[in-house]
Amino acid sequence: MTKQHGRCVVATAQIAGTRDYQEDSVAVHVLAGAAAKRAGELLLVLADGMGGHVGGQIASRLVVEQFCQDYTNTEASVVGALRSSLNSANEQLAEAVAETPGLKGMGTTLVGCVIQGNDLYWISIGDSPLWLFRDGCLQRLNADHSMLPLLDEMVRNGELSSAAAKKDMRRHMLRSAVAGKVLELVDLCAEPRRLQADDIVLLASDGVETLAEDELIAVLEKYPEQTPQQLADNIMDRIGAAGNSAQDNASIILCRCE
Predict the structure, then answer these.
(1) CA distances (Å), 122 to each of 43, 80, 142, 219, in order?
(2) Which of 138, 137, 53 is nearest to 102 (CA)?
(3) May I ask the CATH architecture of the domain 2-140+176-257?
(4) In the chain, what are the domain boundaries?
(5) Confidence (pLDDT) at 1
(6) What is the average pLDDT score of the chain?
C-alpha cells in the first residue's frame, strides 16, 4: 500500500514469516478533515502484538485503532496528543481484558509518529524500532525497551561476556509494553527531529531485525532506482530469503521525504 502526502511518500509491507497468523498492525493516516490542529499532519502507527494467536492480533489492532482515533480527535499539541493517545489506547486494552478474561496477558509494542511540515515527532513503548536513514547511515531514533540494552551495558561493564549476552534468553524480553497496566517506560520525543530531503523514516516490528543493518542500508540505497513500495517489498523479500526457521511476523512503514 502506498500513500502520498505533500512531499512524503509512504509504503507499507508485511509478511507472516513462519507463523500462520499475523500479530502486527499498521496504520497510515493523512489528517485533512480532522481537528483544527491536526489538519495537514501525517500519522504513522505500528504495533507488534503478543499474547498468542488471538490475543496478539486483538491487542495490536485495538491499540492502533484507539491510538489513531484519539489522536485524530484531539486539538492538543503534537507531543500532548501523542501521550494522551497512548494512555487512551492502554486504557482501552485494560477494558478489553476486563470484559474478556481469556485475553489476560495480551499486549503490544507501539510506535506512533507524526510528520508536521518538516518535523518528525514520535512516541514508542516496547522494542519496535524507529529508524532514520540519511546520507547512507541508518540511525535508531527511539529507545529499546527490551532487555538487550541492559545486557549490552553489562558487557561494557565487564559483568557479562559478549558470548553469554548473545545466548541470554532474556535478550528479547520486554521491560515495558502496552498491556492495560502502568506504562513503565515510554519514549516520547521532547523536541522534533527536523527532516531533510531524501530522508527515509522507517517504523518496523522486530521481525525486520532478521536483517543486519548493512543489509537494510543496501536496500535503502537503491532509491531512487526503486520506489518506496519497491524498497519496502524488497526488505520483506530479503527477510523471506534469509530462511530463518523461527522467522517472526515482520512489518514495515517506510516514509520517503522527496
Answers:
(1) 10, 11, 8, 24
(2) 53
(3) 4-Layer Sandwich (3.60)
(4) 2-140+176-257
(5) 74
(6) 92
